[in-house]
Amino acid sequence: MTLMLLDSASLWYRAYYGMPDTLVAPDGAPVNAIRGYLDMTARLLSLYKPNRLVACIEGDWRPSWRVDIFPGYKANRVDATDGEEEEPDTLTPQIPILLDILDAFGIALVGVDDYEADDVMATFAVKESGPIRIVTGDRDLFQLVDDSRDVKVVYLAKGISQHDLVDVSWVANKYQIPGERYALFAMFRGDPSDGLPGVKGIGEKGAALIANSFANVDDAMSAALESHISLPPALAKKIIAGADYLKIAPTLVHCAKDVALPKIDLQVPERPKNLDEIYQFQSTYALGASIDRMIAALGW
């Protein structure tokens, strides 16, 4: 009984930039993100045939508990005019329509106040039984792969047709580190997309060396202070200089796995008595084959 977790924001951004802006509703409103999201979801459903499905959304894209310890968290994405997340003007109005359509299909939508979608997916990944497939274009979620529980990431960086199915060995081959230590690697390397600097002067090569030699930040710091043979002196010096950042890095980088999730039915929805509401969306927004593909992928 495969559970598929959709990183919805990742999907609708990818859909928005991947579909032509000439796709519009009869009133001229853009629907490219809506159509792209539905098309991708339909293809994923057809390919992986999950029995359970959740569209995960942001309760807060900059949770207060992360910003409190590091004000720069995702500050690179803040719109200076209103303090909200920067978002294309023609994408913003599509999101509530898309969520209404997913609701009409009966697809579970889950977002929790003061948590990111990543945290919601991480909690599902540890609380629910496998197999679990996490659909995202965000490499942060590589930290969740778990071969023993069959948790894998459907990584969309190269698109649906050429996507990667990421497991522990994929991470190991890609970054030349123990596959279960991606989060540790990311703490030292940093992540510019989230405004996380990592440890100054340590790039991928240095972060990989650390991840290969130590299981956690504390072990790496102790080794640096003791001039461990595994650490070149220059790298040890950088680790020590980054001590203040490394105290908070685990909280910033690790997904929360203890989110209070709502008790809802995760089963892929069965066909409703009628599809009138769905067909109304199809007509109103000229969603054509995108709606048809979803209906077919759900086996309706």
UniProtKB/TrEMBL annotation:
* Chain ranges passing through the membrane: none
Q: Could you tell me which residue ranges the 5'-3' exonuclease domain spans?
A: 1-272
Q: Which Pfam families match?
A: 5_3_exonuc (PF01367), 5_3_exonuc_N (PF02739)
Listed A to Z, the keywords are: DNA-binding, Hydrolase, Nuclease
The molecular function terms of the Gene Ontology recorded here are: 5'-3' exonuclease activity; 5'-flap endonuclease activity; DNA binding
**InterPro entries cross-referenced by the UniProt entry:** 5-3_exonucl_a-hlix_arch_N (IPR020046), 5-3_exonuclease (IPR002421), 5-3_exonuclease_C_sf (IPR036279), DNA_polI_H3TH (IPR020045), FEN (IPR038969), HhH2 (IPR008918), PIN-like_dom_sf (IPR029060)
Q: Which GO terms describe its biological process?
A: DNA replication, Okazaki fragment processing
Q: What SUPFAM superfamilies is this protein classified in?
A: 5' to 3' exonuclease, C-terminal subdomain, PIN domain-like
**Sorted alphabetically, which PANTHER family does this protein's record hold?**
5'-3' EXONUCLEASE FAMILY PROTEIN, FLAP ENDONUCLEASE XNI
Protein known as:
Unannotated protein
